[in-house]
Amino acid sequence: MGKKQQLCLASVRSHYPKFSVTERKIADYILDNPKKIIHFSINQLAEVLNVADSTVFRFCTRIGFKGYQAMKIALASEVVTPLTDIHEKVNEGDTLGTISSKVFRSNIKTIEDTLAVFNDEQMMLAVDAFVSANSIEFFGSGGSSIIALDAYHKLIRTGLKVNTVTDNHFQLLKASQMTEKDCAVFISHSGSTKDILHVLNVVKSTGAKTVAITNYAKSPLSSAVDIPLYTVSEETDYRSEALSSRLAQLTLIDVLYVNILINKGIEGQNALKKIREAISVKRI
Question: N or C, fewer C-beta in 10 Å, the chain?
Fold first, then answer.
């Protein structure tokens, strides 16, 4: 898979919670006036916002671009394509059909934005970490614990030794028993959940490899793990980021699952065959 084109609007939204007051001023103007920005020079934008040119430049690099021009090119590609406004807000007067359509399109946009920031190298590192680990533990809190359970349900089919527990006390117990030959996977959209960060600290003291599935922005979790895997999602009045992010998280887990099976070859196929035979008795 080749390198994906970075999306400007998705990058701005995903980094937004960590922006300073001045950075939010720039971000708000870009989000509200994307079509104007593509016709502005860096000097014009700085003048409109009453900030220095260097402040605008640093903002562009903060969200992952080499400079203002690179950001503007990415933004232009979004403005002139159907990606614009696909993440529509649900209004009180919308019909059931309209609401349903908006939810579908929003989910599609979340996965497309996550694909845009997908990193082949990081995924390969994660696959290698999984395959070489003695055991793999999935950690998640609240809604993320459901994603961790889904990861366990999928990856146990590969023949890898996987496990997950939802109670934070049990998570700490499990974390303390990990070794440098194990791998811990932390699932958290915000990347700043106290319970998960506490478990992470315990795991890191054991020397185990650490992987995160988290939002595409700097966070305590993404900065601390060995291998961060990113999702991108957006919040609206009736739809939380956590709701849409889970779809991207599940998709990343699917990507891990398929790549691990391919990596393990015959061994993986035999493990999958055993699983299918074991559960076949449950079918009529």
Answer: C
